[in-house]
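Tip: read the tokens left to right.
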């Protein structure tokens, strides 16, 4: 039998499957709306210090997320504050 190689994200999902809980239709709709509200629909180009970017990439890697996603989450939290 051929062994399937999973990505890091797929392994994390597989390891945490028991934590996923079925939801009712109303809760599902709320989740769908929350995801839609977070959809990225604008592009931003900025210049930052290379050492700052290196630090951001390092922190994102430690958290297991892509650095651009990490930056987007930081900006979202600041915008919501």
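Filled-in amino acids:
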């Amino acid at each position: 039998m051929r062994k399937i190689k999973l990505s890091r994200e797929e392994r994390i999902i597989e390891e945490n499957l028991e934590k996923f809980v079925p939801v009712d239709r109303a809760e599902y709709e709320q989740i769908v709306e929350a995801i839609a509200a977070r959809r990225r629909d604008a592009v931003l180009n900025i210049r930052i210090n290379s050492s700052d970017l290196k630090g951001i990439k390092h922190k994102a890697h430690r958290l297991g997320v892509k650095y651009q996603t990490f930056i987007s989450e930081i900006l979202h939290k600041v915008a919501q504050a």
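The chain has a mean pLDDT of 87. The radius of gyration is 17 Å.
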